Amino acid sequence: MSETAASIASFWDAFAASFDEEADHGLRDPGVRAAWAQRLRSWMPASPADVLDLGCGTGSLSLVLAEQGHRPVGVDLAPLMVGQARRKLTAAGFDALMLVGDASNPPAEAGSSFDVILSRHLLWTLPDPEEALRRWIGLLRPGGRLVLIEGRWASAEPGEDQSYAVGSESLPWMGGVEAERLLAALRPLVETARVEPLPDPALWGRTVHDERYAVVAFA
Q1: DSSP assignment, residue 117?
Q2: Computed over its alpha carbons, how large is the radius of gyration of the chain?
Q3: Sign of CA dihedral 71, 119, 43, 154
Q4: Per-residue confidence (pLDDT) for residue 161, from 0 to 100
Q5: Could you tell me if 49 and 116 are in contact, meaning their C-beta atoms sit under 8 angstroms apart?
């Protein structure tokens, strides 16, 4: 693991114990959970689908997908986050694979063929997000889809003050990526892509004033 990757993993591990306290992270509030469940259902193909959840964190979205009849595989760089995800899925009765690894270049153990690749608020953390997108598309089955939940945050995200991790000053999409910029990166790689704005406070547990959206792209 590179120095930058180790620093990033350490950063997120420090938040593992409290990560789910954020409404959209832990999905503990029934209204927030229901809002995400509805969105995920609208973005997914018919179940059961094989879904690679990249930057899975504590596994909240993977759990919702499993509850909806899908087969999620999670990958995250932070071991303590992955530990939380494993416990969360196991406690709910699901035998889902949750792996420690680089989401930008998923480990072979995760698999090589998926119906859906899902990521939420991950691209800004990657040293080469456009190369990651190319890799991910290569893991999709014919007709498969990318579901990228992203945004450009007006308020500072971890890393905006350059203290995020060693090497983070060179991250090209630090603080998020605008929908049009992400679409421009995707257009040469996919057949179609659409943007769905996500301003609904029910998704975040609060009112948001910055750009939040999902891109659904088909290979």
Answers
A1: E
A2: 16
A3: positive
A4: 45
A5: yes
The rounded Cα 7 to chain-centroid distance in angstroms is 19
Tell me the C-alpha distance between 52 and 71, whole Å. 9
Note the maximum CA span of the chain: 42
* Closest C-alpha among 174, 168, 185, 77 to residue 133: 185
Angle, helices 79-91/60-67, rounded to nearest 10 degrees: 30
Q: Which two tokens stand for residue 198?
A: 């996500």
Compute the distance between CA of residue 175 and CA of residue 67 in angstroms, rounded to an integer. Answer: 31
Per-residue pLDDT for 147 more than 70? yes
Only one residue has tokens 């060179």, namely 170
Helix, strand counts (H, E) of the chain? 8, 7
Task: For residue 60, give Cα distances in angstroms to 6, 35, 69.
Answer: 23, 13, 15
Distance of CA 187 to CAs 31, 32, 101, 184, 217, Å?
34, 31, 27, 6, 9
- pTM of the predicted model over 0.70: yes
Tokens of 168: 């983070």
Show the tokens assigned to 188: 């040469």
